[in-house]
Amino acid sequence: MILNRKKKGVTLIELVIALGLLAIVTSFIFSFFFSNERKLEEINTRSDLQYEAKVILDSISKHAMAATKCKVDKE
Q: How many domains does the chain have?
C-alpha cells in the first residue's frame, strides 16, 4: 500500500538548522553594531576634545588681542 503524504510544515531538523543559522546571522549583526557603537563613542570624544581646544585657543587669542602691554620675565 502506497501512502500519499502531502508535506506540510517543517521537520525538527529543519527547524534546528534554521534557528542555528538565525543565531549566527544575529551574532554577526550585533557584533557589527557594537563595534560601530564603540567607534562612534571614540569619535564623539575626540570631537568634544577638539571643540574644547578651539574654545581655549579662541579665548587666548581674544585676550592676546586685547592686551595693551607685554612683560617678559628674564631668568
A: 1
DSSP string, 15-58: HHHHHHHHHHHHHHHHHHHHHHHHHHHHHHHHHHHHHHHHHHHH
pLDDT tens-digit series, residues 11-30: 899 999 999 999 999 999 99
- Specify the pLDDT at position 70: 81
By residue range, what is the domain housing residue 43? Answer: 35-63
Q: How many residues does the chain have?
A: 75
Q: What is the Cα–Cα distance from 25 to 29, expressed in whole angstroms?
A: 6
C-alpha cell at 36: 560601530
**Rounded-to-integer distance, Cα 12 and Cα 27, Å:** 22
Regions in the chain scoring below 70 on pLDDT: 1-7
Q: How far apart are CA 20 and CA 40, in angstroms?
A: 30
Q: What global pTM score does this model have?
A: 0.53
